[in-house]
Amino acid sequence: MKTGALLLLTFIICASCSTSKTTPTQWQSEAFKNQKIDRMLVYASTKDRVLQEDFEDRVSEVLISEEISPIKMHELFPDIEYKDKRSEEEIKKLILECRKQNIDKVLIASQKAMRIDTVYAKSLHNYFNTLEPLKLNGKSNDELEYKTKKLTTYTIEAAVYDIAVSSEDKPIAATTLKVTDPKSLDKIEADFLIAIKKLFKNK
Questions:
Q1: What is the percent of the chain where pLDDT is above 90?
Q2: Does pTM surpass 0.90?
Q3: Is 137 helix (H, G, I), strand (E, B) or coil?
Q4: Which residues contact 54 (CB under 8 A, 6 or more apart)?
């Protein structure tokens, strides 16, 4: 097969591939690895109340499957509303209430970041445009038109805190999911739940 035809075939294959990509990362402290977790407060930190309740329900199912008793934030503290940031006094008050309920472990799931990038789209139109400058009397680089597309990257995290040890923002374990150009929000949720399940495997 000629080199030019091979390059074209490779480009067609790449152009048909999805740009969707999911990258999970996981971290566990020695304290987390070496202790048995019996029960845990689950909090989905989002201003969407329906999403909060749904996700806390789904995470609770995952924890139950790993023999951990979940307590849902929206059931135990229904009056606590979402805030981007809480004061130190508010955090201490919440921790005190948790300790009264004999809760010393808390899982907080949240979106940490969202980034939108504009990139060149893979297409045969772009491919042939890149060849035109090589031709005599072809278009100049300034005249070439390229299609672009927007890629959205979400970074979401589930962090586990031991509030019996510290009230500081220092998790004892965490799983992070970075998703680029997701096919659907349902797919993000499904992948996130799988990552959370792996974090608590054999706990």
A1: 51
A2: no
A3: coil
A4: none
